């Protein structure tokens, strides 16, 4: 089957997608389409493989901006706070994408079955990757299961494993390999990120966290930024700001209350950092969010 026909069938299967992520019934597989508000795209992203089908997504992690023009795929191997925007294709077709959450158990099982000489060893910076027909067909096979739910338990694991394998063999495969190796520095940083997600309101001691990871402070900083695109302090700050935004916009918190709730000691510092990150002061920004969400509902 040629690539255009594969794309056409994928697009047809995604007709019910909307501007909020839709679970497909296939474990870990979600789809989204259309003019997605930028506030929705400012989030803590889960470890995943993303497939931009058409249109373009611009993802900003720290100071690094990555353009993902369809058809292409990308790998987010670790939880990371980011902002983004999406845009239709040149022909006016809406932005469309699929996401597959990374299952570390499946990844580790796959790595155990692969010969060592097949493993990717070269580090490459996070980037969008050109997708080939084999990987695209694997996505199609997984997506087709939404039409035959009874086949999901038997076939979805095989198609998921194929997608992981083909990504592992691609230019971003290094990330998957490092994530799947329990004693790699990358895997240790993943555990640190999990701790930060659970403890972002606390004051963090970089020396203590580095020591728990078995790394010197300079090595820890370097490995953390390589994995996430952010320093540990920037990571914590962005987690706090994202959570505070949700508290104010959707749970009725006042600005100062939200600041204290997520760990800030100074509301004025919170206001400055919030405005810098989101482009508007907290009260104005969250009022705009409520209006947008009300109009969508």
From TrEMBL:
Domain spans labelled HTH araC/xylS-type: 190-288
Q: Which UniProt keywords are listed?
A: DNA-binding, Transcription, Transcription regulation
Look up the domain of life of the source: Bacteria
Q: Which PANTHER family match?
A: ARAC-FAMILY TRANSCRIPTIONAL REGULATOR, TRANSCRIPTIONAL REGULATORY PROTEIN
Q: Which GO terms describe its molecular function?
A: DNA-binding transcription factor activity; sequence-specific DNA binding
Q: What is an example of a Pfam family matching this protein?
A: AraC_N
| Name of the protein described by the UniProt record | AraC-type DNA-binding protein
């Amino acid at each position: 089957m040629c690539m255009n026909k594969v794309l056409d069938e994928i697009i047809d299967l995604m007709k019910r997608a909307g501007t909020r992520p839709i679970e497909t019934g296939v474990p870990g597989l979600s789809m989204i389409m259309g003019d997605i508000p930028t506030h929705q795209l400012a989030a803590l992203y889960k470890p995943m493989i993303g497939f931009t089908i058409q249109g373009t997504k611009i993802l900003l992690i720290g100071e690094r901006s990555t353009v993902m023009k369809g058809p292409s795929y990308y790998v987010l191997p670790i939880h990371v706070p980011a902002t983004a925007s999406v845009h239709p294709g040149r022909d006016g077709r809406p932005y469309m994408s699929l996401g597959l959450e990374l299952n570390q158990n499946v990844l580790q099982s796959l790595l155990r079955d692969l010969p060592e000489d097949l493993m990717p060893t070269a580090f490459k910076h996070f980037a969008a990757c050109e997708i080939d027909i084999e990987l695209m067909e694997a996505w199609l096979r997984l997506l087709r299961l939404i039409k035959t739910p009874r086949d999901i338990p038997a076939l979805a694991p095989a198609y998921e494993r194929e997608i992981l394998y083909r990504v592992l063999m691609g230019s971003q495969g290094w990330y998957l390999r490092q994530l799947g190796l329990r004693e790699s520095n990358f895997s240790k940083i993943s555990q640190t990120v999990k701790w930060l997600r659970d403890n972002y309101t606390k004051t963090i001691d970089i020396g203590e966290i580095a020591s728990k990871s078995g790394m010197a402070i300079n090595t820890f900083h370097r490995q953390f930024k390589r994995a996430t695109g952010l320093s540990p302090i920037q990571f914590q700050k962005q987690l706090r700001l994202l959570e505070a935004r949700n508290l104010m916009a959707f749970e009725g918190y006042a600005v100062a209350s939200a600041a204290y709730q997520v760990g800030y000691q100074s509301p004025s510092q919170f206001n400055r950092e919030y405005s810098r990150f989101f482009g508007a002061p907290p009260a104005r920004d969250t009022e705009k969010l409520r209006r947008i969400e009300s109009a969508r509902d």
